[in-house]
# Entry
Amino acid sequence: MPLLEVDNLTTHFHTREGVVQAVDGISFSVDRGETLAIVGESGSGKSVACYSLLKLIPQPPGEIVAGRALFEGKDLLQADKKTLQQIRGNDIAIIFQDPMTCLNPYLTVGEQLIEPLIYHHSSSRKEATQRAIEILGEVGIVEPEKRINSYPHEFSGGMRQRVMIAMALITEPKLLICDEPTTALDVTIQAQILDLVKALQLKRNIAVIFISHDLAVVAGVADKVAVMKDGLIVEQGSVDDIFYNTQHEYTKKLLASIPEGAKPGASSPGTFNPDASSIENKPLLSINGLKTHFHDYSGGWLKRNQKVIKAVDDVSLSIQPGEILGLVGESGSGKSTLGRSILQLVPVTSGSVIFDGTDLTQLSSAQMKPMRRRMQMIFQDPYASLNPRMTVFDTLAEPLLYHGLATRKTVTEQVLALMDDVGLARSAIRKYPHEFSGGQRQRIAVGRAIATKPELVIADEPVSALDVTIQAQILDLILTLVDKHHLTMLFISHDLSVVRYIADRIAVMHHGKLVETGSTESLFSAPQHEYTQKLLSAIPVADPARERERQMTLTKLIPESTSEI
Amino acid sequence: MFRFILSRLLQAIPVLLIVITATFFLVRAAPGGPFSAEKAVPPEVIKALEAQYHLDQPMWQQYVGYLNDLAHGDFGPSFRYPGRTVNELIAGGLPITAELALYAMLVAIIIGVCAGVFAALKPNTPQDYIPMSAAMLGICMPSFLMGPLLVLIFGIGLEWVPVSGWGDLPGDKILPSITLGAGYAAFLARLSRGGMLEVMSQDYIRTARAKGLPERVVVLKHGLRGGLIPVIAFLGPAFAGLLSGSFVVETIFQIPGLGRFYVQAAFNRDYTMILGTTVFFATLIVLFNLLSDIVAVWINPKLRHQLREGH
# Structure
């Protein structure tokens, strides 16, 4: 008998628009030591299905309508409150997707870690704290005895995810549900976390349900795969079957939408022609010895430990007109700060940013205003970067009117033209951001950025919050627009396959410094710097056989300890 | 933190200055004066009185003189209570009003927060509707209606508690405290319901439940801290509001507190008394606002962190 056997699980949500069948009668099973991956795009019901097992969905509006979920022979869906409380966090633990919001910001991580032990194993605080320190060390947190008293906001995303994992594993559960545990993380950290889960699984023979939208990750971790779409499992089978003997159309589409630089003819999709970039070509933007440092006042009110954080440390690079320069690096590498420094959105410590012959660091904010029209930014999170109280028209008209590019009479026409450009239906002009999907919102954000007809666009992780199929659409939109409007772009991303798809040239950042710059082709085929090599080797590939091979070598490449805090 | 407090105190100076200036000229612009009484007083007497209190001087001179006194902590003599200073009058009424405000505050917090949290646990059910309807009623009902109603029911009808006074008979402090606190209780109930609703839908509450914690711990330990932040931010201004707004209740229950002096001073055109009390209350409001801001920062580790970084 499998550890968990789910049969005909059906969860509905009662909304104003009627009943949404989030999970529509799905069945799957998972056994000890086994990993089942549930794959699907956002909204496919994969998370709701797993949360339903422990009744963690809000009820109402959610309702578990039918089904059985036998865990060690007991039906979880029929269990009373008390039994369920004993199973939650003890026998079945969950690693949630977003480590930024899933930890309580008002309690120290130590306090949150020891809770499961105190309530399930009736440990004393002292024992539990001791165990918490041990497990924090196990998941790779440096100086756990000190960090245990820190609050979640004092950790980076990757470190918070480790805390989350430690919290799930502290009671040694029999089943671990991982909901997109690495989606928000950098490739090297992703690889470490995946390894960690794998190692713990082997050590304790636990069953794992791995929810993900990323087929490349799934290829590496799963034994079995279930593909979900619109609340249904459309295809289910062993990982090799799913990847090599794909049956369902939807699975094929998912596999096809993975951005891969190796696509035939996609080696340089940008318009930029490397041959034309002779040295006498004047770069549109050139940065010389740019430094952006921050002061860190951590460590109490009195003993101010004035450590200087060198977010950007002596970076020099240039971008030719019409070029897409990919800037890659892990979180904390300073790539976003570099982008902001170029636009003078953060105070620069020293160095120069020369845009079309003008040193931006020397300009007053009044002098900067006309320059801002010529350089725009696309932000990562289309949910947070659009004002929820402004319609599409308001959002797109604002920059046009502010920079005097449109009059009250012509603005509607110009906004409609912009909407055509970014592929939004004209009828949506009076809609608010919440009425759009993530991909459509990012189209609005792209439209806002190109509204002022800028020469330089800095795109900061513009697709990392999106599903794969949507990601591909937005990348293609950006390529089309770059071509059409002769844009020059700095494309910041942690996702190497995305950068490979879109960029002409790539710059790699690590700890605030530029470690390597080169054309996309040469950087991927022959990376020079050790860090670039490490980064490239950590990218998962959507091929189970190659993944198995890669994991053999990967363990040697990634050092055990990590200096990230 | 120190810089934060200092900068907030410095910001208070212009605020207080505006309050003083506005009040100073407004009371003098109002018709009538401190010595215009029903009885006809010989003009010489009025002149002598005005000279004694510097009311014969030009307006700006009176203003500068008053500011100078104020800077020395002197609110000046009362015009209507000869021989007594405003400082003395405030010092006499304040303890009573402060005690009343404190009890009212306790009533407001205990009833309001409990009702709000309770309602937030089961939103859009009778458990939510009943306390929230009561809260709505509490906000709508003015204290001059609430007070006499409570007196009628509990004082005269049931004869459980005395109908008026302060500290003379056992239990005479109960009704005034409830009357004054009820409106704030209702407001706190709505605030804490809103705060709790917001927090209870956060991801970290789901995490806490996924850990298998009993619901009691989820609510009290994981929910309350974040949920009560709006309540805490409101407590400072609320306490200042209770102190300065106790007039109606003090009148209904015959309590010799500061509020009654304040209103009588306004009727009597007791310039220094009006000014003194206004300045005193304004200072209190500024201070209590600052205090609740400090507590809000202290309870929220993220704000603490930001403040340390000098944002």
Remarks:
- Chain A has 20 helices and 20 strands.
